[in-house]
Design brief:
This protein is an alpha+beta fold and 82 residues long. The chain contains three helices and four strands; from the N terminus they run ααββββα. β3 and β4 form a beta hairpin. It is globular and about 30 Å long.
Length: 82
């Protein structure tokens, strides 16, 4: 799937694409939100979920590696370096 295809999907279809095709890369908890970072093909999707209701509040899809910065300390790369 291309980023442009993902962007135009309905919310329910975005959820299916992320859960069935995505690879969970990292997770972060904040006081009000849980953030999940998934990789889909050649782009990333950040899911922002409400901490209490556990519902998805927002999908942020991107290819710019600068948006990975908050997650870099959590992504295991040991296996990649051997």
């Amino acid at each position: 799937m291309k980023l442009s295809e993902f962007i135009v999907l309905e919310e329910n279809d975005k959820n299916k694409a992320v859960l069935h095709q995505g690879i969970l890369v990292a997770k972060q908890k904040a006081p009000e939100q849980i953030r999940f970072l998934f990789q889909l093909d050649q782009f990333y999707v950040e899911l922002l979920c409400d901490q209490q209701s556990k519902k998805v509040c927002e999908y942020k899809a991107f290819t710019d590696m600068r948006f990975l910065q908050p997650y870099l300390d959590q992504i295991p790369i040991n296996g990649l370096l051997e």
